[in-house]
UniProtKB/TrEMBL annotation:
Xref: Pfam families: Bestrophin_2
Name assigned to this protein: Bestrophin, RFP-TM, chloride channel
Keyword Kinase included in the entry's annotation: no
Main location: membrane
Amino acid sequence: MIIRNKNWLKLLLTLKGSIVPQVWQRVAVAMIFSAIITILYKIGFTSIHQPILVSLIPSVVLGLLLVFRTNTSYDRFWEGRKATGGIIISCRSLSRQIWVNIPEKTPEDTEEKIAVIRLLAGFLIGTKLHLRNESLDLKIRSIISENQYLELKEVNHIPMRIAKWIGDYFRKAYDLNYIDSIQLSTYNQILDSMVKDETACERILNTPIPLAYAIHLKHLLFLYCFALPFQMVAKLSWITILVVGIISFALLGIEAIGLEIENPFGYDPNDLPLDNMCDKLLLELEELLTSDSRKEYLID
């Protein structure tokens, strides 16, 4: 979500993309608990005020844990963005080189070249489907042949099969003397880079934050938020409820942000816009296929 052009007040009041829907119930529970403690203090249970609880969980320790949690999740998000961006860069580079440098001696050559360029977009779409554990959709079906579609339905790793088809095309072009060994090596290196970036996305997806760490952080957040009213009730009285709500919202919100962005390949508002990336790459490749750049290159 691009926010640089949004009105500040509109952004402040926006719920879509924020963590309010995820944390408001937990914040409400903390505030209700604070109200109960405040009522008990008001009716005479003054011993319920326990300032010593301020040292139960040092704020520095909790802050460091939250910072580490958020930084780790953002690193995963940013690595996912770099990996998907790397796939797009490789697809753009390969499509240009295929379209300009590989000759066409028959109409079948032209059809095969167009098909393999569309397969580059299919690789990114297939990566998206693989990361989301989804079956083939109409978009990828529209850019591959019927035989390829039936074959993809039977495989477990869609991007790898598409990468094989692209590699087979390079090998065929080399065997027909359409490209030399240096070009073959260059194209395969770019294809290897695409597979490497796809594997990096898999690594992010299949290596979640350690469960013990996530559970321990939740325990500390629970203890900290529910210890707050015992510390504040004597001095703040009814304001304790509001203060506990604000602090709980801040701490639980940071933890919720880390949880939402640790897997950047889903459908959450803050995940990577994979569908838009696929659409944009496909549009760019279709524009390349209708351009005259190849003719101009051949004339030069």
